[in-house]
Amino acid sequence: MNRRRFLVASLAAALAVPLGAASQQDGRLPRVGYLTSESRSVDVESFELGLRDLGYTPGQDILIDYRFADWRVEKIPSLVAELLRLRPDVFLAASPYVIRAATHATKTMPIVGIDLETDPQKAGWIKSIAKPGANLTGFFLDIPELSGKQVQLLAETVVRLRRVAVLWDADAATLQFDAIKAAAQAQRRSGLSLAFRQPSEYPGALSSAARQPAEAIVVLSSPAVFMNLKALAELALQHHLPSISVFPQFAEVGGLIGYGPVLPDLFRPSARYVDRILKGATPAELPIQRPTIFRLIINLKTARALGVTIPPSLLARADR
Question: I need a surface site. Which of 127, 160, 240, 264 has the fewest CB within 10 A?
Answer without folding.
Answer: 160
